[in-house]
Amino acid sequence: MTASSPATDAPPARYDDLRALVINCTLKRSPETSNTQGLIDRSTAILDAQGVHVDVVRAVDHDIATGVWPDMTEHGWETDAWPDLYQQVMKADILVLAGPIWLGELLHLARVLKDLGGIPAYGNQRTGWDAGCHRDYENPEHR
After folding, report:
1. Neighbouring C-alpha atoms within 13 Å toward the C-beta of 66
2. pTM of the model
3. Domain count, the chain
């Protein structure tokens, strides 16, 4: 490229308006050393260098109830940290799920989320499911 080409005249790309949320799915509680955190530190350094605002959450440090409803306290659980964490997920432009790769579970989870068009409890409406539409049913909540 020459100095007069359009690519050099354009201002550099800006990413300071982006927000990333990294969910560390390690099985080790803080402050125990996590190899997953080591990988996260490397990737968040790249995002930080580009001006992206990055938040990191270590899931195991939160009392996230198991279940399929958005707030499991409405279904018998005493506490559930997921509703607050979900608000962070929805505010993020970039969502990174990081975990122990030796299990291969994250690839499975990523594929399920992709196939379902998002987070299932917030996606397809019950009427669509009742009509027999599942993964191919358009998700009205999908961004």
Report:
1. 1
2. 0.67
3. 1
